[in-house]
Write a structure and sequence with these properties.
This protein has 323 residues and is of the alpha/beta class. It has 2 domains: 1-30, no CATH class; 31-322, 4-Layer Sandwich (Purple Acid Phosphatase, chain A, domain 2). It contains 8 helices and 15 strands. The strands form 2 sheets. It has a 9-stranded mixed beta sheet with strand order 4-5-6-7-8-10-9-15-14. A 6-stranded mixed beta sheet has the order 3-2-1-11-12-13. 44% of the residues are buried.
Length: 323
């Protein structure tokens, strides 16, 4: 849908209502379908400055799809090591990531919106250097998007694209969001957008075995999503693809592109590597699917995933069954 805009007073006074309406129509572009690709957890072992060959294959495939936006839900490099990595080691990791991912996407004219993972910019004590370097690395690679709030970029920030609103969370620490993010999120959501997408590293609810406690796990955040009609939350960290829904909110957990694929709760097979594609229609409806390694041309059969994932906080019903 078109977002309503107030006609500029100067235009009304100078040209009259009819011309002012033409001005408004020229400025308010019709919302077009947009395609968003989501990548996550590309890192290898601690301190690694190389990436698995499938990362290059994935990026080439993404470029061939020509999406309007790529989102990374974190863990782009392999930090959070103890003993701590030195500054030059952290910089070398980011240089390798940019060579493999950031630069090819930029050269193809595809904006990359990032959010920090625990291996990129952990919020736990002792990793302030990694957070500082993460912030510095992305200042010069800030994509040209229509920002609503970029004061916290590249941690917490918001932008709009094609009538959809996107909000990045700084979610690298288990438990409720910290640093006033709930208050800012409340202000930024509930806008006149056809779709509102929140993305961060840790999921709100668990989807993978042995990571049940590595979540945000805050019912107040779920209630905020409901109150403000947030469409979906995109997350990483659990290394398993699952498109689920609870109380009208889509929770899309990404598989990893790097190492460490995991099993979904209630499943026996590892999720495998993939990236997610989200197609948002001009009517606000959206479709979600994942393309699997090795060549990222095969679409994952959603019916092969568990019907639902039951956790103490929520029951996620598989998205195709919930709509």
């Amino acid at each position: 849908m078109l977002r309503r805009r107030k006609l500029p007073v100067t235009v009304l006074k100078q040209f009259g209502l009819a011309t002012a309406c033409l001005f408004w129509l020229a400025q308010a572009a019709v919302a077009k379908p947009i395609t968003v690709v989501v990548i996550s957890d590309l890192n290898g072992s601690y301190g690694s400055t190389s990436y698995a060959p499938r990362i290059n294959v994935a990026i080439d495939r993404i470029i061939s799809l020509q999406p309007d936006l790529v989102i990374s839900t974190g863990d782009m490099v392999a930090g959070q090591r103890k003993p701590h990595l030195a500054a030059n080691q952290i910089r070398e990791m980011w240089a390798a990531f940019h060579e493999a991912v950031s630069t090819p996407l930029a050269e193809a004219g595809i904006p990359l919106a990032v959010t920090p993972g625990n291996h990129d910019a952990s919020g736990y004590n002792g990793f302030q250097l990694e957070r500082e370097i993460y912030a510095d690395e992305w200042q010069n690679r800030k994509p040209a998007l229509h920002y609503i709030d970029d004061s916290g970029y590249p941690f917490f920030y918001a932008f709009e694209l094609g009538g959809a609103r996107f909000i990045s969370l700084d979610a690298t620490v288990a438990g409720p969001l910290i640093g006033g993010q709930m208050e800012r999120l409340d202000l930024l959501t509930g806008a006149d957008s056809r779709v509102e997408v929140v993305f961060g590293h840790l999921p709100l609810w668990a989807v993978a075995q042995n990571r049940e406690r590595e979540i945000i796990g805050d019912r107040l955040l779920a209630k905020l999503f409901q109150k403000n009609s947030v469409s979906m939350l995109l997350s990483g960290h659990h290394h398993a693809y699952y498109p689920g829904m609870d109380d009208g909110i889509a929770y899309i957990a990404q598989a990893c592109l790097g190492g460490g694929a995991r099993k979904l709760i209630g499943d026996q097979a590892r999720s495998g590597q993939s990236f997610t594609v989200i197609e948002i229609g001009n009517d606000g409806q959206f479709e979600v699917y994942a393309l699997a390694a090795p060549d990222f041309t095969r679409q994952i059969d959603t019916s092969s995933l568990p019907l639902q994932i039951v956790t103490p906080g929520a029951t996620l019903l598989r998205l195709d069954l919930a709509r």
